[in-house]
């Protein structure tokens, strides 16, 4: 499903954030990308999401070569990806439900079907009772679960999350991780970057560790 081969990423300014990274991720896998701060975890997730392009190497996601991907093909790729990045903020001037509805607005569902799907996504993350709440009234863990609902509402085949448990207490982090495990159990491929592997069970989870831009394991 995902094949990265000899990937390099050099940022403008010359810093080489990824060096000769090769890996394969099969459909339905759950993979944790570990490594120190600055190791290249976020960069790798951005390559997988086509937010950044590799400087060299090849990267194929769902049969699409991201190195040669034409701009027009981006929406098609993204439809299969659920992204949870720190810079994708929730909208604090809309309700929880409206935040989850947003990604559905562009795919042309009837309003009724969109609301049905958005509420189903909120239910999955345990927030249906808070559908009318403004995200600012939600706890950190609830906000993160709302971001997950927004990411999964289009039923992506791959979920990509960058440090999804950062700034959460242990109980909230546990809930968030359990959600990812639940999506993985229904065959969604889950790729999570985290500098703290603590609390994540080893069973059925593969760990890839980056060290100064190279894959250490
Ligand atoms: N847009 C950018 N421009 C220049 N350097 C960057 C950029 N983004 C990240 N870097 C550098 O690339 C390295 C890896 O960053 P990142 O992928 O964010 O690591 P991690 O997520 O593991 O902490 C860091 O040294 C960081 O400073
Ligand atoms: Mg990072």
Blueprint (SSEs and pairs):
Layout: E1 2-10, E2 16-25, E3 30-34, H1 41-48, E4 56-61, E5 64-65, H2 74-78, E6 81-84, H3 96-105, H4 111-124, H5 140-152, E7 158-162, H6 170-185, E8 189-193, E9 206-211, E10 214-215
Parallel strand pairs: 3-8, 3-9, 6-7, 7-8
Antiparallel strand pairs: 1-2, 1-4, 4-5, 9-10
The chain binds adenosine-5'-diphosphate (ADP) and magnesium ion.
Structure report:
- This protein has 217 residues and is an alpha/beta fold.
- The protein has two domains: 1-80 and 160-217, P-loop containing nucleotide triphosphate hydrolases (Rossmann fold); 88-155, no CATH class.
- The chain is 30% helix and 25% strand.
- It is built from six helices and ten strands, in the order βββαββαβαααβαβββ.
- The protein has helices spanning 41-48, 74-78, 96-105, 111-124, 140-152, 170-185; strands spanning 2-10, 16-25, 30-34, 56-61, 64-65, 81-84, 158-162, 189-193, 206-211, 214-215.
- The strands form two sheets. The protein has a six-stranded mixed beta sheet with strand order 6-7-8-3-9-10, with helices on both faces. It has a four-stranded antiparallel beta sheet with strand order 2-1-4-5, with helices on one face.
- β7 (158-162), α6 and β8 form a beta-alpha-beta unit.
- α3 (96-105) packs across α4.
- The mean pLDDT is 93.
- The protein binds adenosine-5'-diphosphate and magnesium ion.
- Magnesium ion (MG) binds at residues 41-42, 162-163.
